[in-house]
Amino acid sequence: MSARKVPRRKAGSKVKAANKTKGRKVSTKKAAKRKAPSDDTSAASTSQSKRSNRNLTDDELYEKLKKKVNDSNNKLAEIDDTEQSNVQSIHDQIVTFFKAIKGHYGKIMYYYCMIGRNFMLLKETFNVTDTAMDNILNLLDLDGYSKPSRNFYIDLYKFSEKYKKLRHVGMPYSEIRTRFRMIKKRIRNDKDFDWS
Q: Are the CB atoms for 171 and 109 separated by under 8 Å?
C-alpha cells in the first residue's frame, strides 16, 4: 500500500482549505454562512456571550458565574445525599452521583460537591490511600479520576461548605475547574454578592 500524497496548498487557495472539514468537502454556501459577518449588533453580542471561556477575561467569567447561580435544576433526581458512615455505602453513593451527572454536561455542581465530600470522607475519616482509591475507582469503572481530580472535588466541597451558592451554579464543571483559584479569590473578596 502506497502512502497518499497530500498536495501542497497554493498561495491563493485559502477558500478551498476553509471549505474542508475533517477530510470532507463542505459546500461553499455552508462555509459562507458560517463565516459571514453580521452587521446586526444583537447578533454580535450573542456570539460574544457564547464565546469560549478560554477567551473570557477573569471579570467576564466571574460575572457569568454569578449569573448562573440557580440557573439549572441542580438536584434532578431524588438521591439519598446524606453522609454515609461506612466505606461500601460511600462507594455506592459515589457511583450514584456519577450516574446522576452523566448526560447533563457536567452542570450539576451539587453532585460534584457531594462526590468531593465522599472522597474527603474516604481519605480523611477512613484513611484510604491514593493507591487504594485508584484501585477502588477502577473496580467501579470510574477510572479517569486521578489524585488531582479527587483533590479538586474535595477542595470544591470544602469551599462550598462556606459559600453554599457555589453548589447551585449551572455551569459545566470544566469551566469552573480551569480557573478555580481565581474564582475562589473573587468569591472571598466579593462584598456585593452574597455567596453564603
A: yes
